[in-house]
Design goal:
The chain is of the alpha/beta class. 39% of the residues lie in helices and 17% in strands. It is built from ten helices and ten strands. The chain is globular, with a radius of gyration of 19 Å. The two termini are 34 Å apart. The mean pLDDT is 95.
Length: 291
């Protein structure tokens, strides 16, 4: 598995990360239930298999199944903690400094470890008031304190609307940004990825495979595209072709999904840096003329 340095953190992470949401979410259509005993055993096997195949970045959150995802991953961390970069999240809305500290301690317990490599503020779209709450209302102070105690290694945040994360780049305490960025949602390419690269922060993508939205839209618009492997492959290769992205989070339920994704990454060499992809009509014309 290819590894890359996660910005200024110095952490070496695999190009794809194991996303923890599936270990907290039920998908009856695909006979997936991580709350059942059989489902739990399968999920634990998937985490172990991902590590065996070279994935060393595991991302989860207490909100994934009311802690179920963290508990499942914790079963593996009991014996394999030193093999992974472990990241989780914490809420910040209406959260006091102490509430944030308590949440992180609860995550530590569920994950069966005494330290976390990355703890991220679990966000969607940050308004100016949200920014003030995070940086001045206690949450950031809480994580800085936990970092000083050695409980966490680095502080990060997640953003569904990447442009709203730009304001946090002024805070040197925050080193890792998990951004919604994929084949059909490329807003981050016009602003946040540019500024994040200049700041040398770690950049991780969520919604890497479009959360199945591209595949579902194609089902209605272009059924002939419905080779799931091809559509997922295009989605993954798009993100991995952008030099500003360090690691791409992918939710994987079964060991077979781990194998599919790892095989794609191991055999993939970008032919073009999508950081340079023209994203305005005038720029497309200029690129065509230059070619």
């Amino acid at each position: 598995m290819q590894k890359i340095e996660l910005g200024r953190t110095g952490l070496n992470v695999s190009r794809i990360a194991l996303g923890g949401y599936p270990f907290g979410g039920v998908n009856k259509a695909n006979d997936w239930d991580p709350w059942s005993e059989a489902g739990k055993r399968t999920a634990i096997g998937t985490v172990n298999h991902a590590i065996d195949r070279g994935i060393n970045y595991v991302d989860t959150a207490p909100g994934y199944g009311e802690g179920n995802s963290e508990r499942i991953i914790g079963e593996v961390m009991k014996t394999r903690r030193d093999e992974v970069v472990l990241a989780t999240k914490v809420r910040w809305e209406k959260m006091s400094k102490q509430a944030v500290i308590d949440s992180v301690h609860e995550s530590l317990s569920r994950l069966q470890t005494d330290h976390l490599d990355i703890v991220q503020f679990h966000g969607g779209m940050f308004t100016a008031a949200d920014y003030a709450q995070v940086v001045d209302g206690g949450p950031l102070e809480a994580l800085v304190e936990l970092k000083a105690q050695g409980k966490i290694g680095f502080i990060g945040l997640t953003a569904e609307e990447p442009w709203t994360a730009i304001q946090f780049l002024a805070r040197p305490e925050i080193d890792v940004y998990q951004l919604a960025y994929n084949f059909i949602y490329q807003h981050a390419a016009k602003h946040m990825l540019i500024d994040a690269h200049k700041a040398d922060v770690g950049v991780v993508t969520m919604r890497t495979m479009t959360s199945g939205i591209l595949q579902r839209a194609a089902k209605y618009l272009a059924p002939e595209w419905q080779s799931a492997r091809d559509l997922f492959q295009v989605s993954l290769e798009f993100v991995l072709s952008d030099s500003r992205v360090h690691s791409a989070i992918v939710g994987m339920r079964w060991p077979s999904e781990v194998d599919l994704n790892v095989d794609l990454v191991e055999n993939f060499k970008p032919q073009f840096d999508f950081a340079d992809l023209p994203r305005m009509t005038a720029h497309v014309y200029q690129a065509e003329d230059a070619e």
